Amino acid sequence: MRDKQSKQRNGLRQPRNFATLLSIIVPGLGQLYNRRIFKGILFLIITTSFLVTSWHYIDIGIWGLFTLGTIPREHHSIQLLIQGLISLIVLAFGVAIYISTIKDARRDAIAREEGKPKPSLLSGITSFYDRGFPYFMILPGLMMLLFVVVLPLLFMVSLAFTNYNQYNAPPRKLLDWVGIDNFAALFDVGIWQDTFLNVFTWTIVWTIVATTLQIVLGLFLALLVNDKRIKFKRTLRTVLILPWAVPAFVSILIFSALFNPTFGAINRDILSQFNIMIPWLSDPFWAKTALIMIQTWLGFPFVFALFTGVLQSVPADMYEAADVDGGTRFQKLRFITLPHVLFATAPLLIMQYAGNFNNFNIIYLFNEGGPAVRGQNAGGTDILISWVYKLTFETNNYNMAAAITIIMGLIISIFAFFQFRKTAAFKEEGRY
Amino acid sequence: MKKWLGTIFGMMLLIGLLVACGPEETKPTDSSSNEDGEKATEEMPEKPEKLTVWVNAEEKQEEAVKQITDKYTEETGIDVEMVPINMLDQVEKLNVEGPAGNGPDIIFQPHDRIGDLVLRGLVAPVNLGETESEYTDTALQAVKYDGDYWGYPAVIETYAMYYNKSLVDEAPATMEDLMAIAKRDTKPEEDKFGFLMEAANFYFVYPFFSGNGAYVFANEDGNYDISDMGLANEGAIEGGKLVKSWFDNGYIPQDLTPDIMNGLFKEGKVSTVINGPWMVREYSDALGDDLATAPLPKLSNGEVPKSFVGVKSYMLSYYSENPEWSQDLMTFITNEKNAMTYYEVAGELPPRKDSLENPVIAEDPIYSAFAEQTTYGEPMPSVPAMQQVWDPINNALSFISKGEPVEPVLKEAVKIIQNQIEASGATE
């Protein structure tokens, strides 16, 4: 009978709602009402200490995030922006704790309604420890991630919506939020619009050609070295890994010297035997060719090592079965080796493409994006990332650089997202 | 989903509440630096405990400044803290440290950063007082911006002609002499050259433009008019044609990089090169007594080419709490005696009339040519818009080196520069 009555009671008279309400007003009160004294006091202490320590900081931070300061010189917009973003993160933590206490009070009240015994202090602590342990373990990592990765990202995204450039920079001036003006300017300011298409096409060509070549070469060599009839496998592998072992930074600079049309060894000592002089650095087409060759050379050892490892794990009985069925060499490659290898390495290969899309090092170190091309303000071999670098450091348009970077990030993420989705689908279909 | 909405709504409410609060409006505090840089002549304020100076992180230069500031501490009792920070990183660092209150009193910067520093409001103008007349006119022109002085000139540098005495009897006095040497000594197949320079680098090529009447921005007494550019006028085209002739005649190879040029000169295969005083040590180690220097050769119109002059100066941080004593220290560092100390230890020329006439410099076989050339040169423009000039004009020079016609290439470059200046927000 009483059970039924308690079920029919509703609204605030019901303990679960009352406990929830108390917790909403002051975190910890609900727990006290539930006679969970220790827990209630603990939550009260946590709440008050959180508010006492961070209230002022968050207050200024959020105010700064919205106004970016009101008095030039007195307020530093960039510092306020960062403080505001940190405040947001801290606030999100606070809200998460707040909601969890409300939920906890409600859960305990429901348990009491259903007449479950109140757990002793010790058992409460152990159950909390058991449930919360994984969270404790990832908490330091999560904290690091928030402040090392998420905060700078948020900062960069925020900059794309301000008017922060050389002529409008703190501490002398205040920044303002300008909405999507910067993105709009990308499509109607002459110097960017003209060059964007050229740079973008070359970026795509570069990504696809250079990466595909390094993968194909790596695969070809891995298959060769993996063949049963090859002797000195170890030595060969060591030699083939070498380009990866030398820091790319150094190799690129050396290549840059080798490819110098007048003084470099390639023209001077090798091609001169055939009476050929190729303008490697001064002609855009040849500079692009040289870059793709260098990247292939730099990039294949990684792929080679990857494939060599995977090839070891292809079961030999499959090949034997194929032999029994009269499969040709090519069919074995096509239907056994390739699916195995590509299935295992697809995500890593996608990362190779993404890495080359943003391969700033090689473009900048080889020829600083040169040679210059008449009528555009990017060099002949500039890819998006190196062009953005030039724009940032020459025109000091921090806001525009942030805007272009966001667009680039989106391109990469969309591409990677779909590819990973596809490989996941691929996984479910493929049965080996 | 609903829960999420609730949470977000709650956050919004909280944020709204916080935005409404904000800080109590702080009254702008009396900033200690005086906006007009007046030096109190009657009496100096109380001596501070210490002054902080950021110097360029280079061993010899640090040593020189250390010697000088130790003397200052002896004389006045004020401690000087010296922090070595790479000159090119100082601006960014001050941008962060200054407003936070951990900045220095004095920074050390090349003069072409002045426009940018003033724009960001990181430095305060200085009053050179009685010492003004002691610095050379070029140096004063360099540190002047918007009608104020912003630094105490400490180092002046420009490039000049190096030549190898075993290959050339005497320095070429005119461009014709130089071309004759180039014609006589250039044998590309043996890697021998009569005359080399970074001819696709505007910094070094400028004298051949300006000597004929080209200019970057119109300049009147430290006020630059960035809408008036003279890099495609007749003088510039004249200069461009001169540069083009070097490539057309095969005197200078198209793909010359500074490393290759220095390497060949040090091997004794090049008769003359144009380069700055920062190469003196390296060149003289390689060539010994064969190394000699001279001012740039006169152009066909009889003018000495006006090279780009860079002046490094000590500047007063806007956030310094002791502007008067900081200026006192800067005056001390750049006075006659200490400037010579700096020259002897760090090997950089001081921009003072008395120093440049001092026999130690004026009769130095190597440095005297650089000292003389600084008197012909003109300071690099210090407006922030100058940053947009370098890249397009260097590209134009590289097109010229490949045989493209001079006039349209220069006109194109000027147009690109003006577009970039506009895009960078200078005209807003």
TrEMBL record, chain A:
Gene Ontology process terms (BP): maltodextrin transmembrane transport
Ranges for domain ABC transmembrane type-1: 200-419
Membrane topology: Multi-pass membrane protein
Location of the protein in the cell: Cell membrane
Main localization category: membrane
CDD domains assigned to the protein according to its UniProt record, in alphabetical order: TM_PBP2 (cd06261)
Ranges annotated as spanning the membrane: 41-58, 78-99, 144-162, 204-226, 238-259, 290-314, 335-355, 398-418
Gene Ontology molecular functions: ABC-type maltose transporter activity
A GO cellular-component term linked to this record: maltose transport complex
Gene3D superfamilies associated with the record: MetI-like
SUPFAM superfamilies documented for this protein: MalF N-terminal region-like (SSF160964), MetI-like (SSF161098)
Keyword annotations of the record: Cell membrane, Membrane, Sugar transport, Transmembrane, Transmembrane helix, Transport
Protein family according to the UniProt entry: Belongs to the binding-protein-dependent transport system permease family. MalFG subfamily.
Free-text function comment from the UniProt entry: Part of the ABC transporter complex MalEFGK involved in maltose/maltodextrin import. Probably responsible for the translocation of the substrate across the membrane.
Protein name, as recorded: Maltose/maltodextrin transport system permease protein
Automatic annotation (TrEMBL), chain B:
Subcellular location: Cell membrane
GO function terms (MF aspect): carbohydrate transmembrane transporter activity; maltose binding
Annotated stretches, region: Disordered: 24-47
Biased composition (Basic and acidic residues): 36-47
Alphabetical list of Pfam families matching this protein: SBP_bac_8
Keywords: Cell membrane, Lipoprotein, Membrane, Signal, Sugar transport, Transport
Topology class, membrane: Lipid-anchor
Gene Ontology annotations of biological process type: maltodextrin transmembrane transport; maltose transport
Tagged with keyword Transcription: no
Superkingdom assignment: Bacteria
GO cellular component: ATP-binding cassette (ABC) transporter complex, substrate-binding subunit-containing
Signal peptide positions on this chain: 1-20
Family recorded in the similarity comment: Belongs to the bacterial solute-binding protein 1 family.
Classification via PANTHER family: MALTOSE-BINDING PERIPLASMIC PROTEIN (PTHR30061), MALTOSE_MALTODEXTRIN-BINDING PERIPLASMIC PROTEIN (PTHR30061:SF50)
Name of the protein this chain belongs to: Maltodextrin-binding protein
The species this protein was found in: Virgibacillus necropolis
Lineage of the species this protein comes from: Bacteria, Bacillati, Bacillota, Bacilli, Bacillales
